[in-house]
Amino acid sequence: xxxxxxxxxTKTFPGVKANQxxxxxLEKGEIxxxxxxxxxxxxxxxxxxYGLYKPDKGEILINDQKVDIEGPNDAIAxxxxxxxxxxxxxxxMTVTENVMLGNETTKSGVLLDREKVTQRIRExxxxxxxxxxxxxxxxxxxVGIQQRVEIIKVLYRQADILILDEPTAxxxxxxxxxxxxxxHSLIDSGKxxxxxxxxxxxxxxIANRITVLxxxxxxxxxxxxxxxxxxxxxxMVGREVxxxxxxxxxxxxxxxxxxxxxxxxxxxxxxxxxxxNLDVHAGEVVGVAGVQGNGQTELVYALTxxxxxxxxxxxxxxxxxxxxxxxxxIEQGVAxxxxxxxxxxxxxxxxLLDNMVLCTYYKPPFAKGVNMQDRVIAENGSMLVKQFDxxxxxxxxxxxxxxxxxxxxVIVAREFSRPIKLLIASQPTRGLDVGSIEYIHSRxxxxxxxGTAVLVVSSELDEIIALSDRIAVMYRGxxxxxxxxxxxxxxxxxxxxGVKPEDIPDSAKKKSAGPVEKVF
Amino acid sequence: MTDKTVKPTPSxxxxxxFDLRQIFEGSYNTLLPLLAIFTGLVIGAIVIAGxxxxxxxxxxxxxxxxxxxxxxxxxxxxxxxxALFGGSLGNPRDIVAGxxxxxxxxxxxxxLKAIYPITESLTTATPYIFAGLAVAVGFRCGLFNIGAEGxxxxxxxxxxxxxxxxxxxxxxxxxxLALLGGIAAGALWGAxxxxxxxxxxxxxxxxxxxxxWIGFRLSDWLLNGPMKxxxxxxxxxxxAESAQLPHFFPDPLRVNWGFILALLVAWLIYWLLxxxxxxxEIRTVGANPDAAKYAGVxxxxxxxxxxxxxxxxxxxxxxxxxxxxxxxxGQGFSxxxxxxxxxxxxxxxxxxxxxxxxxxxxxxxxxxxxxxQSLAGIPVDIISIIQGLVIVFVAAPDIIRWxxxxxxxxxxxxxxxxx
Lengths: 520, 419
Hints:
The structure holds 2 protein chains of 2 kinds. By secondary structure, chain A is an alpha/beta fold. In chain A, 32% of the residues lie in helices and 26% in strands. The longest helix of chain A has 16 residues, at 173-188. The radius of gyration of chain A is 24 Å and the shape is globular. In chain A, 47% of the residues are buried. Chain B has helices spanning 10-13, 15-24, 27-50, 53-60, 66-89, 92-105, 109-140, 148-165, 171-200, 204-224, 257-275, 277-287, 289-294, 299-326, 337-347, 352-376, 381-395, 397-404. Chain B is globular. The interface between A and B is large, with 47 and 36 residues.
C-alpha cells in the first residue's frame, strides 16, 4: 500500500503550465527521487503536497485516504515534513530553540521548556545518527549540520513522509556522504522519502525509484541499475546531452595573474587566506578545488577588489593591483562570475537589459557623457539574450523573474561579452540544470581557447576536473599543491582533506581509466 | 549562436515602448495606488457619516424611518465631499460661466473667482512636489530621508535671507540666487547625514531626525535673533520683489511660477534617475548595494550625492513656498511638508511622475479641507485620516489585493529602502 499517492495533479500559473496531470506514488520505506531541470515543476509539485499551493485538478491520497491539504500546518499534522533547499533557521537562536519554534513546549503555559525539547532532540539524534549539539547556535554550525537541524525539526514534528528539496546542493562531498547515511537510517526506521534533485549520480546512488519531470509533465520513471546517467540526462533535457566537456589541449602563454604571498581577512576580520601563491596563464583554465570555507571566497573577493588585502601582491598583466578598486580591476579586463549570483551578480529588480550593462553602463557606446543610450542598451540586451540563449519573454522583465539557470546565463553573457584578459568564475554552475551546465562549461572553454586566462573556483570536484588544465588544491587559506589535469579524485580528495602532498600514497595518484565524467 | 549581427526585433527597436515601461512600470503598479486612494475616500466617508450627530440620530430612529437614516447618511457624505472637491477644484459650472463672461465682456472677475479653488490646490501642491521628489530620490538610493522637514526649513531660511538681504538686483539675477540659496541650505542639511553614513556608517534615519531638531532650534534662534525683523514678532523681513516667484494672476490668486518650476524639476529628476549614468548608479546602490560594489560603483559617493540632491530638493521646496507664497518666514513656518513628503514619495512609488500626481492629490485634499470645515462642519483632521489610510493601503498593498481580489504580482518589487 503506498503511503502517498498523487493523481492527475495539474497546476497552472498565468502563462505557465507548471504541473500537468502528474501521477506519483510513494511506497513505505522507499526513496523516490524526483528528477528534473530547474523549472520542470518539481518544486511546484512539492509545494502542492505541502499545502502552499492548491492544485487546479487532481487528488492527493495519504494511506489510501483522500485528503485536502490546507496549508503547511495541515501537511505537518498529516505526517508530511519538508526540508527546504534554503534553510528556514534563525541564526542567532540555538538548535533547541529553532526546533521548538512554532511548536513551543511550555511549562505552566508561558515558560519555555527547553530541557524537555533538548531531551527529545537527543533521542532523535541517537536514533537516526543525526549528531548535533542542541545548545549550539545555528550561526556557528557548518551548513551540513544546519541541514541536520532541519531534518530534526521535521522528525520532531513526527513526520513519516519527508521531502528533501535539493538537499545536496549546498553540501561538500563529505557532507553528502553523511546525509546519505542519515537517509538510510531514516528508511530503516520506516520513514518514506521524496528526494528532489537534478544531480544524476546521486539519484542513481541513493534512489529506489526515479520519476523524471520535464516542462511540468512526467516523462518517465526508472529504477537505478536499469538506466545510466546518459539516459536520465536525455530524459530530463529532452535531447542528447554531452556529458563530457570536449576540449583540446591547452596552449598556455604568458602569466596574466600572479599572486604572491597573499593574506586576506574575511568580512568578520578572521584570517581566511594565509600566504597564497598562484599564477594563471593566458589560454589555460586553473581550477581551485577545496572544501568550502577554506578561503576560496576571500581569494576571489581579494582578486576582484571586493575585500582589501592584508599583505602580499597581486599582479595583473604585470601591473600591481593590490590597492585597486573593483572598477579599476574591471577596466584592466577582469570578468567575474560571482559565487552568489543574486547578491553580487544581478540587481534583481532591474530589467535584463540594465543587468547586461551593469559593469559597462558608463562607457561608450552605452553612455555618451552622462546620457545613457537606451537604444544601444536595448539592442545589446536583445543581442546577448539571443547569443547566450537566455530564456526570457522579453529583455524588459526584471531579472528576478528568471529561473536560476537563466539568471546565471545573464551574468555569463554580460561578463563574457566584453573584451577580457582574465575570467574569474566562482561556482559557475551551482544549482543549475544539465543543459545550462553544459552550455556554460562550453563557453568557459571557448574563452580559454580565445586566449583568456581562466580561474575556476568550485566546490564540485567533478566540475573542477572537467574544466581545468591545472588544479590548485586550497586548504586552510593556502594552495597546498597544484596537480595536472589528469589527477585522480582520490588524490585531490586527500589533499582537500588536509593530507600533506608528500604523504599521499602512490596508489591514490594512479590515473583512473576512461574519460573524465561530470556529476550533474 | 556566435552570430554578432543579430538585429533587434521591431518591437524592441521602438524607443517609446521602452519609455512607457519606465514611466508606468506596468499598469499593475498604477492600479494599486488608485484603488488605495479610492478605498481611503470610502472609509473616510464612513468616518464622516459616523461622526455626524444628525446621521447618528437618524440611525437611532432606523426602524421608524429607515429611509431617513440612509438619506441623512448620504446628505452628510455628499455635503462633505462636495465641499472638499468644490473647495479644491472649483465648481465647473462657475468656471464655464466665468470663461463666457470673460470672452464676451472682457471682465475676468467671475473667472478668477471660479478658478480660485483649483489654483489654491496647485499652490499647495507646489512645495509637496519638491519635497516628495526629495524623499523619492533618497528611496531610490536606499536611503530613508526623514529629514526633509528640516531641510525644508533650512531651504526657506536660506532663500529668505538671500531674498531680503540683497536689494536692487534685477529679478533675473536675484530670483535664481534666492532659489540657489534655498537649494544650498537644504543640500548642506542633507549632506551632513549623508557624509556621516558614508564615512562612519551612522544610520541616516537617526541622523536626519537629529538634523531636523537642530534645524528647528537653529531657525528659532535665527528668527528671534540675527534674522528677526524690527518689531515684536519672531519673523523675518519681507523679501525684495525681485526675489519673488511671479504670480500668474492678480491677488488673491497665489499660484506662481514655482508650480511650473516644480514640474520642470520633476522632469529633470526623471531624466537624472532614468536616463543618466548618475541615476543608474544611484538606483543600483539603492536596489542592491552588493551588486553595485561588484560593478565598481562607489557606494559611499552615491550615498552622499543622493542625500545632497534630496536635501537640495527639500530646500527648494521651502524656497518655493517663501519666494512664491509667503515672502517671509516665521516660527513654525512649515505645515509638515517634509513629513507629508514621505507619504507622497511612497504613494508615487518613488517615481518623479508618480510623485507629481501624489502631490497634486495632497494639494487637492489640503486645499479643500478648509472649505469642508467651514461649509460642512467636518474637521480638517478627517483629511489626515484619509491621507493616513491611503498611505497604509499603499504601504500594505496586500490589503487592497484582498479587498478587490487582485492576483498577487508575479514577482514582488524589491524593497526600495532598506530602512
